[in-house]
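#lab-general

N.A. 3:47 PM
ok so I finally got the sequence cleaned up, no stray characters, all 289 residues accounted for. can someone with queue access submit it? mine expired

B.Y. 3:52 PM
send it over

N.A. 3:53 PM
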Amino acid sequence: MKIGFIGTGVMGTGMINNLLKHDFSVTVYNRTKAHASQVLANGATWADTPAAVTRVSDVVITIVGFPKDVETVYFGDDGIFSAAKAGQTLIDMTTSSPMLAKKIFDYGAARQIDVLDAPVSGGDIGAKNATLTIMVGGSQQVFDRVKDVFAAMGTSVNLFGGPGQGQNAKMANQIMIAGTMTGLTESLEFAKSAGLNLDQMIQTIQGGGASNWSMGAYGPRILKGDLKPGFYAKHFLKDLRIALEVADEMKLDLPATKLAKQLYETMVDQLHLGDLGTQGLIDVYEHKS
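B.Y. 4:20 PM
back already:
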C-alpha cells in the first residue's frame, strides 16, 4: 500500500516517521519543502503538489492547519481531487469542521473515492511515539481496510459513525482539553502564589484524583520555560471556535468552553502568541499579574 502524506508539520513529521518504520512507502508534500527535510532524510519521497502525491498513492493522508487549508488541499487547482481516481482512499486527519468533512465525503462518494475524517489527539509526543488517539468518521468497510495504517500511528483508534463523526468526536475531546488546560494553568498560578513547590505540586496532582494528561505533559514544560508547540495555540483556538459553532447549531450552551476560547483569544489575537504551544496560556496570566 503506497501512502501519500500532505502536511509535514509538528504532528505530520512524527506520523510519517512511524509509517516509514512500518515499511510503508510514503510520498509527501508540504507548502515549505524545508519542513519536510527530516522525513525525506528518513526515506520519504517528495512530490511538488497535492495532485502529484495523489497520482502515486493508494491512500492519501492530510493533516494541515485550518479548514481553509483543507479546502485548498482537496479542491484547489493542484489539489487532491484534481488527480484522485475511483478506488483511492482519502483520510483527512486535520482537526476541521464536521460540515467540511461531509462535503469532502460527498464529493468523493460521487466519484467512487473513499473518504474518512480521522482527527487525532496526543500532541507531538503522541505523534512521535505512535500513541495517538484517532477518531474516525466514515464507513466500516473503508475503516477496516486501513486499520494497519492507523495502527502505525496510534494506539487508540475508534470509528464513531458516518462522515463528520470523527470531527465531532474530536470536538468533544477538545472541549475536555480546554478544561484541563485552564485547570493546569490556574492550579500552577495558585500554587506559585501560595509559595508551594511546583515540582512537588505536579507530582502530587498526578498521583491523585486530579491527575490528567495535560498536567503531566505540559506542567513540567512550563516550569522549564519551554513553551514550544507540541500543539499550536492558534490551532487550539481554531478547534474551540469550531466546537462552539457546532454547539450553537445543536442549540447547546457551553459556558466553560466559551471562557476557554476567550482566554486563548487573548493569547493569540491580543498578545500575538499563537505560535506558542497551548501551555503558553500561562503567559496570559503572567501578563495580567
